[in-house]
Each structure stands twice: as C-alpha cells, then as structure tokens.
Amino acid sequence: MLRINESPFLGRCPLTWLASAILFSCGAVFGQTAAPPPDNVAGIPVSYDEAKVGAYTLPDPLVLQNGQPVRDTRTWRDRRRPEIVRLAEENQYGRSPGRPPGMRFDVFDKGTPALNGTALRRQVTIYFSKDRSGPRLELAVYLPAGAKKPVPLLLNISFSPNSSTIQDPDLKPGEMWGRDRKKAPAPKGRGMGGLRIENLLARGFGVATFYYGDLDPDFAGGLRLGLGSEPRFGLPGDRPGRGLEARRHHRRVAPGKDRGLGRRP
User: Fold this and answer.
1) Cβ-contact 119, 153 below 8 angstroms
2) Burial level of 153, CB count in 10 A (0-12/13-18/19+)?
3) What angle do CA 177, 225, 46 make, to 5 degrees?
4) Which of 33, 134, 246, 260 is most buried per CB count within 10 Å?
5) In the chain, what is the greatest distance between 2 CA atoms, to the nearest angstrom?
6) How far apart are CA 193 and CA 196, in angstroms?
7) DSSP 8-state symbol, 95
C-alpha cells in the first residue's frame, strides 16, 4: 500500500499530506463508489460499459498492414504512419476534403477597436460555395490592440454564436439552432461556452471563435442542414441516422477550423 508521504504526486508539504489524508478518509468512511455509467445522454442511447465491448485486437503500430515489421525511420514516415492516419480517417474522424472551389471570404469588419480599446476586432463570413444562401460560417477574430507583430491565436469552436460567446455589443447578431430544428436569433447575454478574453489579450494572445452549428447542426436530421448539404462534404453513402452523422461530424467541422486558422489544403 502506498503511504501518503510516499506518493510521487503529493510532494513533501505537510499541509498537502493532511488534506490528502482527509480526502482519503472521507472516501473510506462514506464508502463512495463510482456511479454506474449512463445508458442515455441528452436523449441519445450510449454505452460506456466496458463489459459490453466486444473482443478486439489493437493493431501493432510498428507492423505494416502486410505484416512486415517497421525497422527504420523511412518506413515509419512513408508507409506505417500514413496507414495509421487512414485508420483514423476511415473509422473515427473522416477525411477533410480540402477547400471547395467556390469558397468566398467576406471580411466586412477589417479591424475595429473593441473591448474598451484593448482589442482590434475582425469579422469574416466564410461561404463554402458560390451560393450565398448555402452553408456559411461567421468568424470573429480579436487581436491585442498594441501588437506590433504576429501573435499566437487561440481558435474556439463554440456551442453558441459569436454574439453570445463574447460580450461585445458591436458583434454581428448571431443565429442558432433551436429544438424545433430551425434557426432563430441568438439570445442576448453570455451563452453556453461563453468566453472572457480580456486576460488573454492582455497577455499577448489573439482569440478567434465560431459557432459549430454553422458547420454541422448536432442533432438527428442535421446532416442536410450544414456542410453535409454540399456534395463535396457529403459522402455518396451518407444517409440520415444519428450514428453515421456522429462519425461524419468531425470531417465537416475540420474544414471550418482550418479555414478559420488560414490553412490551405
């Protein structure tokens, strides 16, 4: 049995030992046990019970799919690593299809002083096709007002539209999906996932944010309401269904994230 003062995580502070001893004692006295995993989250059937996991064997990361071992750096870089990336693409995240040819950027706010003069704000509408009535992403970017050179930028994928994420009265009013699966004006005030970015700006960081619902509404049937409605972002076999939509969600969010960061495919 590991004694409190022998733990590699607690150090040698007597107060730390005392606090830890109290916590461990409370756990023993009250007989606390982990709650059983839920079988339903937000109305969606889920399974977190390891006992229900079927038999499987994880692939050896240092063995090629043809059974040959990886014995040098070149084989790893040129052959095995791409194989592992493809496994993640095919079984979990999907593959980002790259920049659509009709993508357009409307920079309608090119650098306005904001947040009591501590930031310069830019706002961009990103259209994913020539059809401006189709899916689009609203991106808000804040940079430290006194920055004289490029700064690190933190990109936030928010549960709320920009106007409900950052308390800035001059942000473009946002829209969000409701329970009726229709878009409506975003509520005023800080929403779920709201950010307080003043401290980040003061420390020299920039912040960018967008609403994930602009790309891929996260509910059954949302597949055809976001980027999944664009042929380039949907797969020929895509069908309505929660399981498939969950697997494809990362593939459709990734292009918006990359465009927000200014990456090119």
Assistant:
1) no
2) middle
3) 70
4) 260
5) 66
6) 10
7) -
CA 160 to chain centre: 13
Q: What is the pLDDT of residue 132?
A: 86
- C-alpha 233/C-alpha 222 separation (Å) is 14
Question: The tokens of 250 are what?
Answer: 């990362």
Which pair of tokens denotes residue 185?
């004006």
State how beta strands 153-158 and 206-211 pair: parallel
Structure tokens at 209: 């944010």
With a cut of 50, list the residues of the chain below it in pLDDT: 1-12, 14-29, 235-247, 249-250, 264-265
Cβ 107 vs Cβ 115: under 8 Å: no
Q: Would residue 189 be called left, alpha or beta, if left means φ above 0 and alpha means ψ between -120 and 50 degrees? A: left
Residue with structure tokens 């929403």? 191
| Helix-strand-coil split of the chain, %, nearest 5 | 30, 20, 50
Q: What is the DSSP letter of 91?
A: I
- pLDDT at 197 (0 to 100): 94
- Structure token pair of residue 28: 């023993």
Bridge partners, 185 (sequence order): 175
Token pair for 6: 């022998």
